[in-house]
Specification:
single chain, Immunoglobulin-like, mainly beta
C-alpha cells in the first residue's frame, strides 16, 4: 500500500501556525478507507480525533506552536487497521523549521 500522511502549514505570526494533515495515496486505496483516527500531542484538547470524510482525504485541520509526531490509525472498510506516523514540521515564512 502506498498510503502515507501529508501536511501543509501556514505561519500566522507570533509563533503560531495553522496546519493540516491528510491521507495521501492512490484513489483506489483511499476508497477502501473507512476513517482515520489521529492522535495528536497530549497537550491538545481532545488529542484523539476521528475523521471519516473521504472527500477531503480524511483531512484534519488544527493550529499550534510547535512540531510533534502525529500517529494515525487508518481503519479500512474490511476491518483491517494500518498504523502510520508523521513528523509535523512547521516552517517560518523564510523556510526555517521550528524546533521540536
Amino acid at each position: 500500500m502506498a498510503l502515507r500522511l501529508a501536511q501543509k502549514d501556514h505561519y500566522e505570526g507570533d509563533e503560531w501556525w495553522t496546519w493540516s494533515v491528510w491521507l495521501d495515496g492512490p484513489d483506489d486505496e483511499l476508497d477502501t478507507v473507512a476513517r482515520v483516527e489521529y492522535t495528536l500531542h497530549h497537550t491538545f484538547p481532545k488529542p484523539v480525533r476521528v475523521i471519516d470524510n473521504r472527500s477531503t482525504r480524511f483531512q484534519l485541520d488544527a493550529a499550534g506552536w510547535g512540531g510533534f509526531t502525529i500517529h494515525a490509525n487508518v481503519m479500512f472498510d474490511d476491518g483491517k487497521l494500518r498504523k502510520l506516523k508523521h513528523d509535523l514540521e512547521l516552517r517560518y515564512d523564510d523556510g526555517r523549521v521550528t524546533a521540536r
